[in-house]
Design brief:
Elements lengths: L1 H15 L2 H8 L3 E2 L6 E4 L2 H21 L7 E4 L6 E2 L33 E3 L8 E3 L31 H12 L8 E5 L5 H15 L5 E5 H13 L3 H9 L3 E5 L8 H16 L3 E6 L11 H7 L3 E5 L4 H14 L6 H10 L4 H18 L5 H7 L1 H10 L2 H12 L3 H5 L5 H17 L4 H7 L5 H17 L1 H15 L1
Parallel strand pairs: 2-3, 7-10, 7-11, 8-9, 9-10
Antiparallel strand pairs: 1-2, 3-4, 5-6
Helix pairs in contact: 4-5, 10-11, 10-12, 11-13, 15-17, 17-19, 18-19, 19-20
The structure holds adenosine-5'-triphosphate (ATP).
Length: 481
């Protein structure tokens, strides 16, 4: 009975909501088979979001269909069970951002452009210059370390970054709220820094006096070492603990730096306790960072962990068109499609390719079309074609799943072999120019329909199963960077 009610309800929601909202938040919900009307969400973020934004509407629709009991939203693996009723809470209230700290006029002026805390090497008094704050770009003495072009507006949404974008937007609106810290992870050049800084830029746009600091983890370490040498740890601590939002990029560099981890752990706790927002990026999932203390790994997972994955073809085209428009480059759709088809590894490389094409076009005074792009990117494409071969993919996949390359060619059908084989086929389709029959041939002489089936299956599994999504993205990263 619940099944048919939910079916009607979900159809109604699909009619009511924009498709991206429906696909992101409601499509992933699964009706549990337990006695109570329970919807299972794939992760805590979706569960919380649905509780905050959609549960009332769901309940109302169900009531119209004659169902009057409360419903529950749970996380599919059973974590964080939290019953909800129709009158569930509203979205988190906005926390006012403190406006107390201004850079000291007497503080030493730093020429360093990267470090927000400048500890001068002099005996008395030890001063820390706070160069931090947002500060409207270009205004006043205060320097911003945020790239003003990294905004939500300039960020192209796609399936590969949808959750990360939604989470970032949510946090930008509710600084220090329910999702703290935000941990964004994913491969090189996929937009982690862009998203993190978009949050920072948004906070500052809302409140130009907000204290937002963005820095690379290596900078944090270097500043701390300097503070230690100069006996200036109290100032160091005070500074970091006074922020509204601390944005630390690439925290994998904390690995094996025990003293920095210790200090960061305390800073981190102090910020979380004060409801100050912490945003971290990393090239991998927290648990996979070797040389990072377990307590930090576990703490990173307290808030919200979201992945950015390599963008699919449509998103790559959209990103190219957007970048071309921003740079006032006339890029025909067909040429964008060609670039996007051939440059698949990450967005930074897409941007690099576009820059190269537009520089060539300017230099030669030519209009950009596909033939021109082919010529301008000749070397790059030749290099890339050489790098990703089916053999390479098979070797990498076999190593990753700890199976033999010959298993990928064999007829064995056990899942421990068949799944990696399907993943390897899908990667071959995505990363090489080989046709389906050629790929089938390279996998023990299989039919092209088997390859097509594998590609569809892997696509579906990536959408529904986190492990497969991560495996695929790890392999993609290994093969393309
Ligand atoms: N979805 C997107 N829309 C628009 N631009 C994007 C998108 N994703 C990435 N970019 C652009 O790609 C470039 C690289 O992104 P970014 O520096 O954020 O990557 P990253 O994931 O932080 O990489 P790294 O791990 O190397 O630090 C930036 O110029 C960014 O603006």
């Amino acid at each position: 009975m619940h099944e048919s009610l939910w079916q009607q309800c979900i159809e109604q929601l699909q009619n009511e909501l924009p498709s991206h909202q429906f696909n992101t938040w409601l499509r992933p919900l699964i009706l549990s088979e337990s006695g109570v009307f329970t919807l299972l969400a794939p992760n805590r973020f979706i569960a919380n979001w649905v509780r905050d934004k959609y549960v009332q509407r769901i309940q109302t629709i169900l009531e119209e269909l004659g169902y009057n009991d409360a419903i529950e939203i749970e996380i599919a693996n059973g974590q964080g069970k939290k019953p909800v009723v129709a009158s569930s809470r509203q979205a988190g209230a906005k926390k006012p951002i403190q406006m107390d700290l201004k850079p000291s006029a007497s503080a030493p002026v730093s020429t360093s452009s990267a470090s927000p805390v400048v500890i001068e090497d002099r005996k008395q008094p030890k001063e820390i210059e706070v160069q931090t704050t947002g500060a409207k770009r270009g205004k006043g003495k205060v320097q911003s370390y945020l790239n003003p072009s990294f905004t939500f507006k300039s960020f192209v949404e796609g399936k590969s970054n949808q959750l990360a974008l939604a989470a970032s937007q949510q946090i930008a609106e509710n600084v220090g709220g329910a999702y703290n810290p935000l941990f964004i992870y994913g491969g090189v050049g996929l937009g982690k820094t862009h998203l993190m800084q978009a949050i920072g830029n948004h906070i500052i746009d809302q409140n130009p006096a907000a204290k937002v600091v963005y820095l690379h983890s290596e900078r944090f370490v270097a500043d701390m070492v300097k503070a230690l040498q100069l006996n200036a740890m109290p100032e160091f601590k005070k500074f970091y603990r006074s922020l509204d939002a601390l944005l630390i990029d690439d925290i994998q560099f904390f690995a094996k730096k025990d003293r920095s981890q210790e200090e960061f752990f305390h800073t981190f706790n102090a910020l979380l306790e004060g409801n100050q927002q912490v945003i971290l990026t990393c090239d991998r999932f927290p648990k996979e960072i070797e040389g990072l203390e377990d307590r930090l790994k576990s703490r990173f997972g307290w808030g919200l962990t979201v992945a950015v994955e390599p963008p699919d073809l449509e998103t790559r085209v959209a990103i190219l068109m957007k970048k071309a428009e921003e740079q006032k480059v006339k890029l025909p759709g067909e040429a964008a499609f060609f670039i996007a088809q051939r440059i698949r590894s990450n967005v930074r490389e897409l941007e690099g390719a576009l820059k190269r094409v537009s520089a060539n076009a300017r230099f030669t005074g030519s209009a950009i079309n596909t033939a021109f792009v082919k010529e301008a990117l000749k070397d790059l494409l030749a290099l890339q074609d050489k790098q990703v071969s089916i053999e390479n993919i098979q070797r990498t996949v076999a190593e990753y799943y700890k199976i033999k390359i010959s298993d990928l060619h064999s007829k064995r059908r056990s899942r421990s072999i068949a799944r990696p084989r399907q993943v390897a086929m899908a990667l071959s389709k995505e990363l090489t120019q080989h046709s389906l029959p050629e790929i089938g041939e390279a996998f023990g002489g299989r039919d092209h329909t088997t390859v097509l089936h594998a590609c569809r299956k892997v696509k579906e599994l990536r959408e529904t199963i986190q492990d497969i999504r991560e495996d695929y993205s790890n392999l993609h990263r290994t093969l393309t960077t």
